[in-house]
Amino acid sequence: DCLFRLIQPRSLSQLPPASYVDLASGAAFFLSSLGVCLSTMQESRWFTTSTEARPYRERIEQLRPSITLALQMLMRKRDILLRGDAQAPNRLFFDALAYQTLGTYVNNTEAQTLATQFIEAALALQVSEGYFKEGTGYDSSYQGVGVSVGWNVYLTLPTNQNILRELLWKALSCGTSWQ
Fold first, then answer.
1. How far is CA 127 from CA 136, 138, 168, in A?
2. Which of 142, 154, 175, 178 has a CA-to-CA distance to 49 between 20 and 30 Å?
3. pLDDT computed for residue 45 by the predictor
4. Contacts of 78 (CB under 8 A, 6+ apart)
């Protein structure tokens, strides 16, 4: 009797369709969350060794080919993301987080190298006062998001990337203090 109908608020129906940049950036946003989850699970001794978690480990392992395909798709969007997210440090950090965490999970060093490019692009947007320039100036809400995501990037970087970790630490510490 009842059919499911998508109800779209008028405010959304008046928006223009999403651009290629929006779609690529949105994919990076959601894939960064997946990557953080996978990273957290891989670092959990309970998750990696317990019999209770075994069915979850097995199911996630079955998803590895799909995760690899998602990362490969995101890697093909590199130029779109670098261009489209160039003035949004929080987005650049989300992009970096997706490349870093998923690259680590599927052992893709090329993706991890891409993460470094996005980190460097985000760091280049920090001004001497400490905030990350968003578009033409500062935006305190995006500053908080960018710094928070930047700390997640920092936490997922391998310890052998000392120089990048130090640069990121200094920039994020300064950005956190400014906030």
1. 12, 10, 14
2. 154
3. 97
4. 114, 117
